């Protein structure tokens, strides 16, 4: 899945059942851990995918470190201020400190990270936008126009957990 293969592709190549692939995915416990406790600058952005059909959008909001290429933390939810605040709380819970936040002009980012230094504009989020493209290429479930999509929300989240773990640890 990390290399763009779907469940049926893995089933065919490995000669195992689709149920076995899905069971292995659902039992996986891959979680990312920040590699540092302090980052000079974190870029934050949102990315949408869907489960089942395009009306069932799922928003991924995450923090990215440009120099190391690391996805530091992420949350799933609606595209609103509450989800961005959950990301900020998750960064705090993980013990991550940062000197400044780089984001686009979305009001929720500006409001949630009001207490810290911010740099705002597309110029400062070039790396995270490139990472969005990399994610869409690595995991077909993230691609907007695809026959590969998740039918179950849990499998969708687990596939992204697996991908982020592999990207952060250099396995891909």
TrEMBL record:
Task: Extract the Pfam families matched here.
Answer: DDE_Tnp_IS1
Its GO biological process annotations read: DNA transposition
Transmembrane regions listed in the UniProt entry: none
**Gene Ontology terms, MF aspect:** DNA binding; transposase activity
Q: What is this protein called?
A: IS1 transposase
The organism encoding this protein is Acinetobacter indicus CIP 110367
